[in-house]
Amino acid sequence: MAAYKTDLAFIHDAGFGEFALRTAPGLLSLLRRHGVDHGLVVDLGCGSGIWARQLGFAGYDVVGIDASSAMIRLARAKAPRARFLAADVATAALPRCDAITALGEVICYAFAADESGAALSGFLRRVHRALRPGGVFIFDVAPPSLLNGHWTGNGWAVLVEKSIDPDRHLLTRHITTFRRTGGHYRRAEETHVLRLYEAEPLRAALAEAGFSTKLLKRFGDYHLHAGHYALLATKS
Q1: The domain 6-142+197-235 is classified under which CATH number: 2.40.50.150, 3.40.50.150, 3.50.50.60, 3.40.710.10?
Q2: Could you read off the pLDDT of 92-126 as tens digits, one per residue?
Q3: In Å, what is the CA distance from 50 to each residue of 89, 121, 194?
């Protein structure tokens, strides 16, 4: 699935970076409370680099990985001290590190085609191997929301229509973007498919990979929306 091409990457950065900014203080506090107050953090699905930049400001080394080349270009400009790689999050080589994050429903995107769960299980084992003892893996999971919407900003607009396949646990977003270029607006379309996960099967998969887990409904003062949750997985 080709996702977050040039126009949608720009719009996501310009209009939807609030999630990364508002969750950053709580996430940094969470890392420190679990003993990760320095070292290397791997930011999976790094997007335009907002979270990577906040990690850098806090003194961490950062490697960002994202499948979108357009997002990687934005991230390199936004967080020049971090290292970035354009690669499939599900299969990218993971360096030895102190923490791994996958924020913004990254896991739901990365394993949309993984109906058996085998690819996710293998990925979780690789995450466990990459982390140093005491390291943490933090990620959030998409809510099964059917609310459609449209948003506008300076020189752009985006419309989102959603549908759910309950039998296959898939959420599909049909996204239409309009971006001003010169005196005209350019239209583009993308279709994103996400896998919906219930918390307990995910916790069981993490336990099988060697993690202890905690369910999160907020990052510090930022409360996740209904149905949207996160998991903190710790390597003992």
Answers
A1: 3.40.50.150
A2: 999 999 999 999 999 999 999 999 999 999 999 99
A3: 18, 28, 22
